[in-house]
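We were asked to recover a plausible sequence for a given structure. The inputs and outputs are reproduced exactly as logged, with field labels preserved.

PROBLEM: sequence recovery
POSITIONS: 739
GIVEN STRUCTURE:
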């Protein structure tokens, strides 16, 4: 009967029409059904004085003689009835009955949805009149049920035997449809966000999906692992990031990830909170430290600002500071050197720090601090002392044992042994023996074991111009200047000495990679330096207790006083205390044998203090770190196949006025080529395709035998055959026709 009294399937009944209909039923007993469901779903409307209908209908006066009886059963709706009607007329009290039974263990849940969810769910009743018609059938199923109606705004939330839940927002829908929707809090996200979640679960039946399924599907993973998610953080969209933010609010754990994520007020704060929250708590378990480190490494911070390191500085233990660094950025590595400097000043031993705190996370610094070269015990002991005090960044005074270098060969003597081999000379400016253990470590990481490692002496004074033993135009020679540049002046916008040390160490990983590349095409690579450099000589420049030495008359002080060049007319040279006499290219020099310097103005490492580290190393003197270099010979594990050569395009060449040009092809790339014919040197130039153009002049024969030396190795001779221009080879141009 209800559809008769509703203007449309989803409008409220018109009680005036019901009254008119009842007039046609005079003297009858009329059973008016589903009124209770109307009151249940339209409670707000019936409590509004301007819109209510049922109260007027209830209070309608009936003639005293009328025998018409209207029976209105309402199921579990007495409380709502009383709220709407208010006080019952005493004349009607005897006609309002409540039928009680034993308390029922059953209850029913009815979710009332706004029509905007009609496509997202499959409702039990898709409008108000269908609910009025079928509600008893639907409730008998004894499962949560749903109604979609435009009257959702008139519904009040109700609890009891019949629970009513109005669903007028995406969030309320989620709470209703998800098994664990009650764990969500609406204010956590915006309405747009919850709407997007609704779209994600539109294919799930009510109460069949958990919120974790929504998150896992959106992240395209089978299980939630924060570290794996963090590794993809930069590629996640805002919706996915917000789901991660929600995860630990819905499913909190005792992990550090959960603690830090819950500290974030929004998803964008998660990386910062993961990074920083552990610095703000007093009790850090090893497990939390490990979890934090795994997450921070996965997030791959590109840089850290001063405020972060200010938080680090507040930690009481230097060991903890080192444990909380990822060593993925230059700033962190610089901070580590600063912290280690403080630890060494307090008496810690470099090898202990390296072994327990650095080997896994910053192995290059660990190697620098603890490894030895193994060529000379005295030098190993000295370099351990030097490297330790270099990181401490305080002037240590002179080494207690006088160092001598007579037992070491000159660098050129060792390198000369490889002459005539397929060998590339790799010069690293400033590569003193201080760095040899580190470089050997970096080679080992790449599976490269040198054939020999030997200490050698640079020429005095230890400046590049006196040790220039390479040809810049020789393709079999490579020279890097970056290490020396770092040592002198750091980076243009960064004058921290601790930062300089990090840059210095980084050179040798790159150098080992370069060696690996060179070995692809060459049998040998020999690595050496022109000289080393000294931090202590720079620091001594400003020490009050280091008295400068007056340079002899008729001399020029060079390299911040590390040596002086004597004039040609200076007369006999007498070595001053703590100096040695050196000669180079006919010039005479007095070279400092310790950290003193000749009197000269300058600002090497000027302003350096314990609190303010200033870049600066110098060289030119005769200390071990300046004078000693390494000659490291590396040979391929497997010999390269022999280089073979053949003329490009065949053996024949054209000769004109004794001039011949021919391209030669080689079985693998070569760096140098020497070609001669009849003791005459050919001109050789490399073509873009890797072949070489050979130009000969003064050729007088038709058979040309070339002597070919590629990459320093003599190859089998190559023979070319000359063909004359035109048809001069044919004496009878008319083919024997007798004309």
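RECOVERED SEQUENCE:
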């Amino acid at each position: 009967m209800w559809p008769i009294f509703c203007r449309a399937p989803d409008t409220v009944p018109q009680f005036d029409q019901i009254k008119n209909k009842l007039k046609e039923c005079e003297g009858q007993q009329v059973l008016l059904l589903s009124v209770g469901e109307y009151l249940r779903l339209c409670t707000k409307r019936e409590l509004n004085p301007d819109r209510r209908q049922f109260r007027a209908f209830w209070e309608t006066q009936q003639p005293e003689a009328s025998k018409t009886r209207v029976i209105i059963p309402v199921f579990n709706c007495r409380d709502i009835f009383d709220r709407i009607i208010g006080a019952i007329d005493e004349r009607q009290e005897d006609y309002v009955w409540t039928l009680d039974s034993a308390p029922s263990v059953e209850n029913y849940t009815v979710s009332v949805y706004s029509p905007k969810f009609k496509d997202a769910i499959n409702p039990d009743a898709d409008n108000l009149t269908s609910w009025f018609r079928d509600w008893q059938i639907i409730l008998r199923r004894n499962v949560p049920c749903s109604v979609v109606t435009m009257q959702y705004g008139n519904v009040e939330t109700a609890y009891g035997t019949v629970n009513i839940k109005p669903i007028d927002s995406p969030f309320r829908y989620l709470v209703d449809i998800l098994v664990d929707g009650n764990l969500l809090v609406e204010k956590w996200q915006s309405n747009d966000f919850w709407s997007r979640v609704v779209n994600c679960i539109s294919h799930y039946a009510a109460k069949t999906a958990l919120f974790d399924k929504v998150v896992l599907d959106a992240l395209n993973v089978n299980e939630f692992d924060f570290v794996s998610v963090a590794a993809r953080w930069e590629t996640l969209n805002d919706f996915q990031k917000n789901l991660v933010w929600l995860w630990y609010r819905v499913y909190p754990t005792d992990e550090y990830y959960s603690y830090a994520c819950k500290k974030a007020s929004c998803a964008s704060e998660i990386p910062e909170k993961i990074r920083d929250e552990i610095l703000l708590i007093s009790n850090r378990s090893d497990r939390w430290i490990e979890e934090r480190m795994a997450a921070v490494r996965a997030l791959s911070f590109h840089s850290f600002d001063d405020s972060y390191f200010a938080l680090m500085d507040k930690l009481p233990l230097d060991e903890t500071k080192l444990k909380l660094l990822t060593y993925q950025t230059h700033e962190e590595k610089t901070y580590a050197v600063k912290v280690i400097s403080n630890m060494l000043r307090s008496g810690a031993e470099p090898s202990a720090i390296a072994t327990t705190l650095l080997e896994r996370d910053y192995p290059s610094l660990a190697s620098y601090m603890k490894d030895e070269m193994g060529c000379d015990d005295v030098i190993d002991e000295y370099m351990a002392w030097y490297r330790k005090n270099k990181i401490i960044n305080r002037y240590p005074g002179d080494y207690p044992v006088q160092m001598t270098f007579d037992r070491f060969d000159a660098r050129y003597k060792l390198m000369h042994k490889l002459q005539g081999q397929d060998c590339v000379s790799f010069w690293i400016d400033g590569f003193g023996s201080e760095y040899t253990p580190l470089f050997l470590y970096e080679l080992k990481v790449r599976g490269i074991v040198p054939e020999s490692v030997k200490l050698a002496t640079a020429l005095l004074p230890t400046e590049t111009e006196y040790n220039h033993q390479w040809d810049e135009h020789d393709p079999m020679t490579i020279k890097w200047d970056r290490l020396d540049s770092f040592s002198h002046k750091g980076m243009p916008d960064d004058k921290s000495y601790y930062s300089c040390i990090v840059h210095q160490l980084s050179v040798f990983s790159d150098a080992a990679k370069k060696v690996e590349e060179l070995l692809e095409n060459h049998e040998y690579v020999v690595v050496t330096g022109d000289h080393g450099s000294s931090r202590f000589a720079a620091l001594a420049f400003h020490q009050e207790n280091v008295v400068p030495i007056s340079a002899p008359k008729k001399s020029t002080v060079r390299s911040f006083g590390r040596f002086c060049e004597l004039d040609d007319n200076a007369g006999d040279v007498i070595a001053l205390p703590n100096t040695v006499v050196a000669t180079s290219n006919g010039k005479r020099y007095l070279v400092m044998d310790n950290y003193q310097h000749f009197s000269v103005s300058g600002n090497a490492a000027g302003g350096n203090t314990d609190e303010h580290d200033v870049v600066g190393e110098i060289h030119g003197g005769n200390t071990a770190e300046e004078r000693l270099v390494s000659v490291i010979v590396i040979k391929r594990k497997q010999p390269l196949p022999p280089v073979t050569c053949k003329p490009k395009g065949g053996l024949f060449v054209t000769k004109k006025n004794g001039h011949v040009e021919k391209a030669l092809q080689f079985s693998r790339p070569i760096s140098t080529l020497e070609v001669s014919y009849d003791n005459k040197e050919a001109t050789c130039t490399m073509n873009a395709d890797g072949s070489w153009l050979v130009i000969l002049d003064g050729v007088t024969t038709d058979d040309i035998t070339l002597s070919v030396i590629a990459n320093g190795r003599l190859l089998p001779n190559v023979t070319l055959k000359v063909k004359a221009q035109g048809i001069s080879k044919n004496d009878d141009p008319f083919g024997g026709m007798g004309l």
